[in-house]
Specification:
Rossmann fold, 10 helices, two-stranded parallel ribbon
Amino acid sequence: MSEKKVWFITGAGRGLGVDIARSALAAGHAVVATGRNTDTINAALGERDDLLAVPLDVTDPAAAERAVRTAVDRFGRIDVLVNNAGSFQAGFFEEISPEDFRAQIETTLFGPVNLTRVTLPVMRAQRSGLVVTISSTAGISAAGDFMTAYAASKFGVEGFMESLTSEVAPYGIRTMLVEPGFFRTELLSPQSTQYAAASIADYADRTTATVEAWKGMDGQQTGDPAKLADALVVLADQDEPPLRFVAGADAVEAVEAKAKLLLAQAAAHRELSATLAHDTAWLRAPRRTRGHAGVKSEP
Protein backbone atom coordinates (compact mmCIF):
# COMPACT_ATOMS: atom_id res chain seq x y z
CA MET A 1 0.00 0.00 0.00
CA SER A 2 1.14 3.55 -0.70
CA GLU A 3 1.84 6.01 2.11
CA LYS A 4 -1.32 7.05 3.89
CA LYS A 5 -2.43 10.53 2.87
CA VAL A 6 -5.18 12.96 3.81
CA TRP A 7 -7.56 13.78 0.97
CA PHE A 8 -9.81 16.85 1.04
CA ILE A 9 -12.64 16.49 -1.48
CA THR A 10 -15.28 19.07 -2.38
CA GLY A 11 -18.68 18.06 -3.70
CA ALA A 12 -18.39 14.70 -1.94
CA GLY A 13 -22.07 14.23 -1.16
CA ARG A 14 -22.99 12.74 -4.53
CA GLY A 15 -21.74 12.00 -8.00
CA LEU A 16 -18.04 11.75 -8.78
CA GLY A 17 -17.11 13.17 -5.38
CA VAL A 18 -18.58 10.12 -3.64
CA ASP A 19 -16.66 7.79 -5.93
CA ILE A 20 -13.38 9.63 -5.32
CA ALA A 21 -13.93 9.48 -1.57
CA ARG A 22 -14.69 5.75 -1.72
CA SER A 23 -11.61 5.04 -3.81
CA ALA A 24 -9.34 7.06 -1.51
CA LEU A 25 -10.73 5.31 1.57
CA ALA A 26 -10.39 1.90 -0.08
CA ALA A 27 -6.73 2.69 -0.78
CA GLY A 28 -6.18 3.29 2.93
CA HIS A 29 -6.20 7.08 2.93
CA ALA A 30 -8.03 9.46 5.28
CA VAL A 31 -10.75 11.57 3.67
CA VAL A 32 -12.28 14.92 4.49
CA ALA A 33 -15.52 14.82 2.50
CA THR A 34 -17.22 18.17 2.10
CA GLY A 35 -20.57 19.25 0.75
CA ARG A 36 -23.53 21.46 1.47
CA ASN A 37 -25.29 18.70 3.40
CA THR A 38 -23.24 16.41 5.65
CA ASP A 39 -26.23 14.07 6.10
CA THR A 40 -25.97 13.28 2.38
CA ILE A 41 -22.25 12.59 2.76
CA ASN A 42 -22.77 10.27 5.73
CA ALA A 43 -25.57 8.45 3.93
CA ALA A 44 -23.36 7.86 0.90
CA LEU A 45 -20.13 6.97 2.70
CA GLY A 46 -21.14 5.78 6.15
CA GLU A 47 -19.19 6.51 9.31
CA ARG A 48 -15.51 5.55 9.51
CA ASP A 49 -12.56 6.54 11.67
CA ASP A 50 -10.69 7.88 8.64
CA LEU A 51 -13.65 9.87 7.31
CA LEU A 52 -14.64 13.37 8.36
CA ALA A 53 -17.75 14.98 6.84
CA VAL A 54 -17.58 18.77 6.85
CA PRO A 55 -20.22 21.25 5.66
CA LEU A 56 -18.99 23.51 2.88
CA ASP A 57 -20.33 25.91 0.30
CA VAL A 58 -17.34 26.38 -2.00
CA THR A 59 -18.53 29.85 -3.02
CA ASP A 60 -18.05 31.09 0.57
CA PRO A 61 -14.37 31.91 1.31
CA ALA A 62 -14.97 31.99 5.06
CA ALA A 63 -16.59 28.56 4.94
CA ALA A 64 -13.63 27.27 2.94
CA GLU A 65 -11.24 28.52 5.59
CA ARG A 66 -13.28 26.91 8.39
CA ALA A 67 -13.42 23.59 6.55
CA VAL A 68 -9.67 23.49 5.98
CA ARG A 69 -9.00 24.41 9.60
CA THR A 70 -11.36 21.62 10.73
CA ALA A 71 -9.54 19.14 8.50
CA VAL A 72 -6.12 20.09 9.85
CA ASP A 73 -7.37 20.01 13.43
CA ARG A 74 -8.55 16.42 12.88
CA PHE A 75 -5.81 14.94 10.70
CA GLY A 76 -2.90 17.37 11.05
CA ARG A 77 -2.31 17.90 7.32
CA ILE A 78 -3.82 17.91 3.83
CA ASP A 79 -1.94 15.99 1.17
CA VAL A 80 -4.42 15.99 -1.71
CA LEU A 81 -7.01 18.68 -2.43
CA VAL A 82 -9.65 17.65 -4.95
CA ASN A 83 -11.62 20.58 -6.39
CA ASN A 84 -14.62 18.61 -7.58
CA ALA A 85 -17.81 20.49 -6.65
CA GLY A 86 -19.68 21.52 -9.76
CA SER A 87 -22.90 22.58 -11.41
CA PHE A 88 -24.15 23.30 -14.94
CA GLN A 89 -25.97 26.48 -15.94
CA ALA A 90 -27.19 25.40 -19.38
CA GLY A 91 -28.73 27.53 -22.08
CA PHE A 92 -28.08 29.91 -24.90
CA PHE A 93 -25.96 32.83 -23.74
CA GLU A 94 -28.66 35.45 -24.36
CA GLU A 95 -31.12 33.47 -22.26
CA ILE A 96 -28.85 32.81 -19.28
CA SER A 97 -29.44 35.58 -16.77
CA PRO A 98 -26.43 37.56 -15.56
CA GLU A 99 -27.07 36.16 -12.08
CA ASP A 100 -27.01 32.56 -13.30
CA PHE A 101 -23.93 33.13 -15.43
CA ARG A 102 -22.15 34.59 -12.42
CA ALA A 103 -23.37 31.69 -10.24
CA GLN A 104 -21.65 29.28 -12.63
CA ILE A 105 -18.37 31.16 -12.38
CA GLU A 106 -18.67 31.37 -8.60
CA THR A 107 -19.08 27.60 -8.25
CA THR A 108 -16.77 26.11 -10.86
CA LEU A 109 -14.05 28.76 -11.04
CA PHE A 110 -14.06 30.66 -7.76
CA GLY A 111 -14.89 27.49 -5.84
CA PRO A 112 -11.47 26.01 -6.75
CA VAL A 113 -9.87 29.43 -6.24
CA ASN A 114 -11.32 29.69 -2.72
CA LEU A 115 -10.28 26.20 -1.64
CA THR A 116 -6.85 26.36 -3.22
CA ARG A 117 -6.15 29.72 -1.59
CA VAL A 118 -6.79 28.42 1.95
CA THR A 119 -5.13 25.03 1.39
CA LEU A 120 -1.84 26.22 -0.08
CA PRO A 121 -0.50 27.61 3.24
CA VAL A 122 -0.98 24.15 4.76
CA MET A 123 0.82 22.48 1.87
CA ARG A 124 3.63 25.04 1.84
CA ALA A 125 4.25 24.41 5.54
CA GLN A 126 4.46 20.68 4.75
CA ARG A 127 6.57 21.33 1.63
CA SER A 128 4.35 18.83 -0.15
CA GLY A 129 0.89 18.47 -1.61
CA LEU A 130 -1.17 17.90 -4.74
CA VAL A 131 -3.99 20.11 -5.99
CA VAL A 132 -6.32 18.11 -8.25
CA THR A 133 -8.93 20.13 -10.10
CA ILE A 134 -11.76 18.53 -12.05
CA SER A 135 -12.01 20.50 -15.26
CA SER A 136 -13.73 19.20 -18.39
CA THR A 137 -13.22 18.76 -22.08
CA ALA A 138 -15.35 21.92 -22.17
CA GLY A 139 -12.27 23.68 -20.79
CA ILE A 140 -10.38 22.66 -23.91
CA SER A 141 -13.00 22.61 -26.64
CA ALA A 142 -16.23 24.53 -26.19
CA ALA A 143 -17.93 23.75 -29.49
CA GLY A 144 -21.66 23.16 -29.09
CA ASP A 145 -24.73 24.94 -27.78
CA PHE A 146 -25.67 25.68 -24.16
CA MET A 147 -22.06 25.76 -22.95
CA THR A 148 -21.09 29.43 -22.65
CA ALA A 149 -21.22 29.82 -18.86
CA TYR A 150 -19.88 26.35 -18.09
CA ALA A 151 -17.08 26.55 -20.65
CA ALA A 152 -16.08 30.02 -19.47
CA SER A 153 -15.61 28.67 -15.95
CA LYS A 154 -13.67 25.63 -17.12
CA PHE A 155 -11.40 27.62 -19.43
CA GLY A 156 -10.74 29.82 -16.41
CA VAL A 157 -9.88 26.80 -14.27
CA GLU A 158 -7.46 25.57 -16.93
CA GLY A 159 -5.60 28.88 -16.99
CA PHE A 160 -5.64 29.23 -13.21
CA MET A 161 -4.14 25.79 -12.57
CA GLU A 162 -1.67 25.92 -15.45
CA SER A 163 -0.31 29.25 -14.24
CA LEU A 164 -0.30 28.19 -10.58
CA THR A 165 1.89 25.17 -11.31
CA SER A 166 5.20 27.02 -11.53
CA GLU A 167 4.37 29.27 -8.57
CA VAL A 168 4.00 26.43 -6.09
CA ALA A 169 6.43 23.86 -7.51
CA PRO A 170 9.41 25.16 -5.47
CA TYR A 171 7.56 24.16 -2.28
CA GLY A 172 6.93 20.56 -3.28
CA ILE A 173 3.35 21.26 -4.37
CA ARG A 174 2.05 19.85 -7.64
CA THR A 175 -1.10 20.37 -9.65
CA MET A 176 -3.17 18.06 -11.82
CA LEU A 177 -5.99 19.08 -14.14
CA VAL A 178 -8.52 16.35 -14.90
CA GLU A 179 -10.45 16.68 -18.15
CA PRO A 180 -13.18 14.05 -18.23
CA GLY A 181 -15.33 13.31 -21.22
CA PHE A 182 -18.89 12.12 -20.64
CA PHE A 183 -19.06 10.11 -17.43
CA ARG A 184 -22.19 8.81 -15.75
CA THR A 185 -22.00 11.27 -12.88
CA GLU A 186 -24.91 13.40 -11.66
CA LEU A 187 -23.84 16.56 -13.51
CA LEU A 188 -26.79 16.32 -15.94
CA SER A 189 -29.29 15.46 -13.21
CA PRO A 190 -31.91 18.02 -12.12
CA GLN A 191 -29.92 18.52 -8.89
CA SER A 192 -26.89 19.79 -10.82
CA THR A 193 -28.19 21.21 -14.11
CA GLN A 194 -30.31 24.32 -14.35
CA TYR A 195 -31.75 25.18 -17.76
CA ALA A 196 -32.27 28.80 -18.68
CA ALA A 197 -35.89 29.75 -19.29
CA ALA A 198 -36.71 30.00 -22.99
CA SER A 199 -37.37 33.65 -23.72
CA ILE A 200 -36.20 34.41 -27.28
CA ALA A 201 -38.22 33.15 -30.23
CA ASP A 202 -35.19 32.81 -32.50
CA TYR A 203 -33.78 30.13 -30.21
CA ALA A 204 -37.04 28.35 -29.37
CA ASP A 205 -36.77 25.29 -31.62
CA ARG A 206 -33.09 24.75 -30.87
CA THR A 207 -33.71 25.19 -27.15
CA THR A 208 -36.35 22.47 -27.12
CA ALA A 209 -34.16 20.08 -29.08
CA THR A 210 -31.04 20.77 -27.01
CA VAL A 211 -32.79 20.37 -23.67
CA GLU A 212 -34.26 17.06 -24.82
CA ALA A 213 -30.83 15.89 -25.98
CA TRP A 214 -29.10 16.83 -22.72
CA LYS A 215 -31.82 15.23 -20.60
CA GLY A 216 -31.65 12.11 -22.76
CA MET A 217 -27.92 11.77 -22.03
CA ASP A 218 -28.38 11.75 -18.24
CA GLY A 219 -27.56 8.27 -16.99
CA GLN A 220 -26.50 7.08 -20.45
CA GLN A 221 -22.93 8.42 -20.53
CA THR A 222 -20.34 5.77 -21.39
CA GLY A 223 -17.73 6.73 -18.76
CA ASP A 224 -17.70 4.89 -15.42
CA PRO A 225 -17.06 7.40 -12.59
CA ALA A 226 -15.91 4.66 -10.19
CA LYS A 227 -13.14 3.71 -12.63
CA LEU A 228 -12.21 7.37 -13.04
CA ALA A 229 -12.00 7.73 -9.26
CA ASP A 230 -9.72 4.69 -8.99
CA ALA A 231 -7.51 6.13 -11.73
CA LEU A 232 -7.20 9.44 -9.87
CA VAL A 233 -6.07 7.69 -6.69
CA VAL A 234 -3.42 5.80 -8.69
CA LEU A 235 -2.18 8.98 -10.37
CA ALA A 236 -2.15 10.95 -7.11
CA ASP A 237 0.12 8.32 -5.56
CA GLN A 238 2.75 8.74 -8.27
CA ASP A 239 5.94 10.66 -7.55
CA GLU A 240 5.26 12.77 -10.66
CA PRO A 241 1.50 13.12 -11.17
CA PRO A 242 0.62 14.37 -14.67
CA LEU A 243 -0.11 18.06 -15.11
CA ARG A 244 -3.13 16.96 -17.14
CA PHE A 245 -5.14 13.77 -17.20
CA VAL A 246 -7.43 13.55 -20.22
CA ALA A 247 -9.99 11.04 -18.99
CA GLY A 248 -11.92 8.83 -21.37
CA ALA A 249 -11.55 7.86 -25.01
CA ASP A 250 -14.02 10.56 -26.05
CA ALA A 251 -11.99 13.15 -24.14
CA VAL A 252 -8.75 12.09 -25.82
CA GLU A 253 -10.45 12.37 -29.21
CA ALA A 254 -11.79 15.84 -28.39
CA VAL A 255 -8.43 17.14 -27.15
CA GLU A 256 -6.58 15.74 -30.16
CA ALA A 257 -9.09 17.39 -32.50
CA LYS A 258 -8.71 20.74 -30.71
CA ALA A 259 -4.92 20.49 -30.87
CA LYS A 260 -5.07 19.95 -34.62
CA LEU A 261 -7.50 22.85 -35.00
CA LEU A 262 -5.24 25.21 -33.02
CA LEU A 263 -2.23 24.25 -35.12
CA ALA A 264 -4.19 24.86 -38.29
CA GLN A 265 -5.44 28.22 -37.05
CA ALA A 266 -1.92 29.27 -36.04
CA ALA A 267 -0.58 28.34 -39.46
CA ALA A 268 -3.43 29.86 -41.46
CA HIS A 269 -2.12 33.44 -41.28
CA ARG A 270 1.49 32.80 -40.33
CA GLU A 271 2.89 35.14 -43.00
CA LEU A 272 0.63 38.02 -41.96
CA SER A 273 1.44 37.46 -38.28
CA ALA A 274 5.14 37.65 -39.04
CA THR A 275 4.77 41.21 -40.36
CA LEU A 276 3.41 42.78 -37.16
CA ALA A 277 6.58 43.60 -35.21
CA HIS A 278 8.20 47.04 -35.06
CA ASP A 279 10.88 47.31 -37.71
CA THR A 280 13.62 47.49 -35.02
CA ALA A 281 12.10 44.86 -32.72
CA TRP A 282 14.67 42.24 -33.70
CA LEU A 283 17.37 44.32 -31.99
CA ARG A 284 15.85 43.80 -28.54
CA ALA A 285 13.78 40.65 -28.96
CA PRO A 286 13.96 38.49 -25.80
CA ARG A 287 15.49 35.05 -25.95
CA ARG A 288 12.91 32.32 -25.36
CA THR A 289 13.55 29.48 -22.94
CA ARG A 290 11.36 26.69 -21.70
CA GLY A 291 10.63 26.75 -18.00
CA HIS A 292 8.71 24.44 -15.68
CA ALA A 293 5.24 25.34 -16.93
CA GLY A 294 5.96 26.51 -20.45
CA VAL A 295 7.77 29.09 -22.49
CA LYS A 296 9.33 32.00 -20.62
CA SER A 297 11.26 35.07 -21.68
CA GLU A 298 14.77 36.03 -20.70
CA PRO A 299 16.08 39.57 -21.13
